[in-house]
Structure formats: structure tokens, C-alpha cells
Amino acid sequence: MLHLLNLLAAIALLVWGTQFVRTGILRLLGERLRSLLQASMDHRAKALVAGTVVASLVQSSTATCLIVASFVAKGLVATAAGLAVMLGADVGTALMVVVLSFDLSWLSPLLIFAGVVMFVAREKTAVGRTGRVLLGLGLIILALELIVQATRPLTESPTVRALLADLPSDVLLDLTVGAVLAVLSYSSLAIVLLTATLAGSGIVPVSVALGLVLGANIGSGLLAVLTTANASVETRRLPVGNLLFKAVGAALAIPWLAQLLAVLQAHLPEVQQQVVAFHLLFNLALALLFIGTVGPTARLLERGLRSVARPPDALRPRHLDPMALATPSLAISCAAREALHQADVVETMLRGMLPVIRGNDLELAKQLRELDDHVDRLYTDIKLYLTQVSRDALSERESRRWADILSFTINLEQIGDIIERVLQDIEDKKIRKNLSFSEAGLAEITHLHERLLANLRLGMSVFLDGHVRDARKLLEEKARFRDLERGYAASHIARLRDNTPQSIETSSLHLDLISDLRRINSHICSIAYPILEEAGALTPTRIRDSRLEAAGADEQQA
Fold first, then answer.
1. Residue 377: exposed, middle, or buried by beta-carbon count in 10 A (0-12, 13-18, 19+)?
2. Which residue of 79, 142, 284, 395 lies most exposed, with the fewest beta carbons within 10 A?
């Protein structure tokens, strides 16, 4: 019983080590891995190589599949190119199995020691993330060594030998067991390494091991399909296509397993090497066999999995992909896209204000006020989504972007609240009382409204691109808008002195409205502060300058 418990603990350590490495690589190189994939999608061969490199680093074809599937869903990558990446990703994972199957027991203590020191000393830096990767690799090697030690007493047990002799030789059963284990462990790499180690120890017959390896490959594809089950149709196409390749490849390989085993045994003396080599050859064969069919397969998937167009009034979150949370840099991009969606809803509210003011349209005012509930809901969803992204997993640049997105959504939520209150005031103080602004007053409000829309579009551009020049221009608009508001307030007071009836009737509403428009503009201009602060382009505050000037004036008077 103790030996079995040790074996289970070693298997758990192996699975945890592979996930530890995968998480560390994604945190260390997440943004660069995405850039590498995006830059390699113009040619199938390049896409295949890029998938091999990324999966070798991440040690997970499933993680690579989720990243590329999100690109496909956003229209950044064609389905055919994504399928080519996945063929390369499977080869990359198989190559890592080959590397980790060597006797590296001498390296495990060094990796664990160095990894712990680096991770503990500089946890939130690139050094700490590198230490996390080294620690995970050390744990994988240590786990494989522990598995060998734990299985040795089991292989010597007469009871275990009798059970193994009575096991049915059923390839479909082996495939099923391998697939289930890969799904449960979230790692086909760990299952293939485990199978090779158990086969090398004599616990599992080689013929059964080959079936388990095929099952682990199918389980890897099935895991991606299950993970994306609730995602959009565009996102699901790539995992389904990848699973289709694996299933067809396994079906073609099953009749030849006996012959393949004979060839492997003739060229490789050790059982563990035979299992690992079979895994690599299977994935290389898939890549060579199906790389020429990714185009027709993509068209088949697009016809079979058709996207259903959203109704035009669907204002639910569109880009907060739960799958992307495993890749912090990708999750940040999803949150940024959803923040721009929130900005579009706010722009719709802002744009509709002027028709309400001009036409006294109660129905439009009601519809626009209801949009504020959607703005609030999007703000809540984005905020909760961001809280699921660990700040410790982000680079310094990504951490700043995290804060910028949250600040942006807060400002948008406050703008929506102001617009809702303004619309309610217009209903109560103007429309229901059948009042109207003077011609000059309406012209002033129209001018401020036009400037406000232009500033909102500029603010969205600053948030998206982060250009310092545009951020500086946006901040300058804050002072210009304030001067306009003061000038138009003075003009309104002048019309009151001239006893203009419409100005007298709407005086309170007019002054509140232009003041609220200035407040909206202040929230829009706040988008520029993080960009300018990061660039070191902010000057000392006016309060500080005014105090210094006052102090200097006092000194001169003295």
C-alpha cells in the first residue's frame, strides 16, 4: 500500500511540475509568444515551426491551442493557419517528451535549488519567473525518478505480475484510458512520460503503452474541445479540427501498431525509448500527412460550425474570454477590447443626448438612460475579469496596462452615470414642461457636445494606442473645454440681463448642463494621465505652482 501511495504521489508531482512550467513560461514570455505566433501566420510552414517552438516552451499543445483559438475567434488568424500551428504544437510537445525522457537525475537538484532561490528572491520579476520554470523542470525530473523507484517494488510483486498477465489486450480500451488520464491531468506530456516510465519498469506492456500514448494524444485534443465548449463558434473550430486530425491519425495507426512495435524494438533497445519514439513519430506523421489538408479542413469546419449573428441590441460582454485567463497577456488584451466595447456604448449615449435636447424625444431619452445599466454591467464584468488575472503573473508593462484598463472603465462608468442624470434632468426640467433653449444657448450646447464627442474618440485612440502626442493633445483639450464652459456661462448670464425669456426659463438647466458636459470632458481627459505619467511628460500641479508664485510675491513685497 505504501508503494502504491508513493507512486500516486510521484504521478501527482509530475502533473503539477508540468503545469508549474507551463504557467511560468506563459508569465515570462506570454506576450512574446503571442507576437511570435501572430508574426508566423502568413505561411503554413512558418506557422508549423512557430507552433513547434511555442509548444516546446510552454510544454502544452492545449495551452497553445487556446491561445491560437482566441486569435482565430477575433479574426486575426485564418482557421487554416491555426490548424497548421497546432500540427507544429503537437510536434513541439513530443520533442519535449524526448528531452525529458533522458536520464537527467543529476540535473534535478541543481534546477530545484536554483529555481527556489531565484523564485523566492525575485518572485515578481523576470528572474523570479525564470526560477519558476527551472523549479518546474526540476520537479518533473524528480517525479520521473520517484516513479521509477516506486514501481520497482511493484514489478517484483507476484500479485502485480499476475494482474498484468490477466489484463485484456484491447487497443480501444487503452485509447480510452489514455484519453481519460490526459483530460484529468490536463497534460498529455505528463501522461506520455508516465506511460514510458511505467513501460520501462515493466508495469505496463509495450503494446498497451502504445495504445495509451495514442489515447493521450486524443485526450489532449479532447481537452481543448471541452475547455472551449461554451466559447463562440469561431473559437471552437480550431480545437475541433485539431481533435479531428488526432482521431483520424490514431485510426490509421491502430492497424499498424504491431509492425511499428517490431520496427522500434529492432532499432531501440530500451522500452522507454520505444514509447517516446513512437509518440514523436506519430506526431511527425500527423504534421506531414495533414499539413496539406489544413485548407480543405478549415473550409469544412467553417461550413459545419457556422456562427450565429448576434442581434444588434446584444450588449452583453463580447471579449471577456475565460480561456484567456490562463495566459495573462492575452487576458489583458481581452479586457482592453471589452473596455472599448463599453466606450462604444457610452458614445451611443453621448451621441443621443443632442437629438433628445433638440427634439424633446422622451422615448429616445428613456432608451439612452437604460443603456447606463449596460455600461454599469460591463464595468462590473471587466472589473471582475481583471481581478481573476493575478497581478503577480504580469510583467511590469502588463501590470500598468491592467491599471490603465481599470481606470478607463471607471471613468466610462462615471460618464454613463452623468449622462443618465443629465437626460433625467432634461426630461423633468425641459421636455415635460415643454420648454426650449434660446437659439444662442442651443448653439453653445451643440458646440460643446461636438467637442465632447471628438474628445471621446481621441480618448479611445489614446487608450488603444498609447501615443504620447495624442495624450498631450487630449489633456490640452481639458483647459480649452473649461474656458469654453466659462465663456458660455458668461454669455448665458448676459442673455439673462437682456431678459431673454427662453434663457430665463431654462437658466438652471442650461448652467447645470454645460457644467455636466465639462465634468464628462474631465473624465475623458483623465485617460491621458497614465500615458503622460509613464512618459514623464506631466508638469507639476497648478496648486504647487501657485503656492510657489504666491511665496515669491510675498518675498518681493517683504
1. middle
2. 284
Query: What is d(CA 64, CA 455) in angstroms, rounded to the nearest whole number?
Result: 39
On the question of pLDDT at 544 being above 50, the answer is: no
Query: 499: left (phi > 0), else alpha (psi -120 to 50), else beta?
Result: left
Number of residues that this document lists for the chain: 558
The per-residue pLDDT for 311 is 44
Confidence of residue 542 (pLDDT cuts 50, 70, 90): very low
**CA torsion through residues 486, 491, 492, 498, sign:** positive
What does DSSP assign to residue 427?
A: I
All three cell numbers of 5: 501511495
Q: Name the residue among 80, 75, 77, 8 with its Cα closest to residue 36.
A: 77
Residues 321 and 312: their CA atoms lie apart, in Å, by 20
Q: For residue 215, what are the CA distances in angstroms to 14, 171, 174, 253, 289?
A: 19, 9, 7, 12, 19
Q: How many CA atoms lie within 13 A of 304 on its CB side?
A: 12
Whole-angstrom distance, CA of residue 181 vs CA of residue 99 = 22
Q: Is the separation of the CB atoms in 346 and 310 below 8 Å?
A: no
Determine the Cα–Cα distance for residues 548 and 413; give it in Å rounded to an integer.
36
Q: Would you give the DSSP letter of residue 466?
A: -
Maximum pairwise Cα distance, the chain: 110
Expressed in percent and rounded to 5, the helix, strand and coil fractions of the chain are 85, 0, 15
Which runs of consecutive H residues, i.e. helices, occur in 388-438?
396-426
Count the Cβ atoms, other than its own, within 10 Å of residue 168.
Answer: 7
Query: Which H/E stretch holds residue 234?
Result: helix 233-253
Q: What is the pLDDT of residues 360-411, one digit of tens each?
A: 888 888 899 999 999 999 999 999 988 888 666 666 777 888 889 999 999 9
Alpha helices in 254-361 (DSSP H): 257-267, 271-290, 294-304, 328-359
User: Can you tell me which residue has the cell 508513493?
Assistant: 6
Residue 162 sits at φ, ψ, to 5 deg, of -65, -40
